[in-house]
Amino acid sequence: MKFEDLLALYQKKKQKYGEETYRHITELLIEAKKIHKKDFENGETAVRAKSEGRIPDHEQSWRAFKGKNLEKLVLHIIKDEIEILGLKIIEGNALERTASSNLPKELNLVKRALLVDYGSFGHHLPDVDLIIYDPNLCAPVAVISSKVTLRERIAQTGYWKIKLGSDEITKHIKVFFITPDEDSTLTKKSPAKKGRAIVEVDTDGGYVMSEQIIEESDRVKMFDKFIGDLKRIVNERNKQV
To answer: At 151, is the secondary structure helix, strand, or coil?
Structure first.
């Protein structure tokens, strides 16, 4: 199974649910897993494992596929609306895996503006899935981590918010988390689970792609609020420039 297959499933959901499609991401992933398993069982890795008397591990393969492609799906969903705001969005790997000397000047400047200073241990990029930036200023506006559940990386996301916020050069960069929240960590505001507490205190916002009704707050909202919040950030930023 490839990302294009996942995207085709999403387009079918979009024809059915329209603007509410974001609520059905878990449903989409369940369908995708069945297709992925069929492809996996007939694939080279599984065939080789069986020939060696081993049980092929589909769950491990699916987790890797799901994690990698959820961020691509989020990118696909928000890309056009972000560009309408005059911004651009790229995958974090586009900067992480490419030497600065091989990047276009625009992305090279964005990369430099995202670096976290570790003193004598050098400067390093935060581990994020997506980067939103202003192409006119070549400046990062926000970063996004996108995971199926919060336990996968929410503490790390909070860590990067703290690191970015501790430096004058990077403190303006917003740190967001987008998730289907399959373990329902964000559902209740009180009593808050640990993951919800981290989102509320140590990020700039968490956005949920789920059919569940969540107790919203200033920091935790349904995914359909994301672009509106980003637009407000851009407008406030433009007033300060």
So the answer is: helix
**Fold designation for 3-240:** Restriction Endonuclease (3.40.91)
Cβ count within 10 A of residue 31: 15
What pTM was computed for the model?
0.90
Domain residue spans in the chain? 3-240
Cα 98 to Cα 116: distance, rounded to the nearest angstrom:
17
d(CA 204, CA 12): 32
- What's the rounded Cα separation, in Å, for the pair 73 and 97? 20
The DSSP H or E segment spanning 174 is strand 174-179
What are the mean pLDDT values of the chain's consecutive 10-residue runs (241 residues total)? 90 93 92 87 62 67 88 94 95 84 90 93 94 95 92 88 94 95 92 94 95 92 95 83 62
Token readout for 37 is 């398993």
Q: Can you tell me the distance from the alpha carbon of 93 to that of 31, in angstroms, rounded to the nearest whole number?
A: 27
223: nearest Cα among 200, 206, 235: 206
Q: Is 42 helix (H, G, I), strand (E, B) or coil?
A: coil
Place of tokens 């069929």: 38
* Token pair listed for 84: 């309408």
Per the structure block, which two tokens stand in for 92?
A: 């974090």
